[in-house]
Amino acid sequence: IVPAFCNDYRGYRVGYGGGYYDRYLPRCTRAVKLGVAFEAQRVDVAAVDAHDEKLDGFVTEGGLYFGFDTTEL
What we know:
Elements: E1 2-3, E2 6-8, E3 13-14, H1 20-24, E4 34-36, E5 42-43, E6 57-60, E7 63-66, E8 69-72
């Protein structure tokens, strides 16, 4: 589970600028990679760079998001 400043429907997150998770996540080959943020932090398209890692989904107080699918809590 990784924190996000914002996230988008494609599974990308914008973090807090340190790049720690983007360096660590490629090692997690057998893990489900989830971001956590508030619903208000969801955006249509996050401004990501080439080194930004894509996550499997996101958790907010409003639901679980995996790509285009949404599961409400």
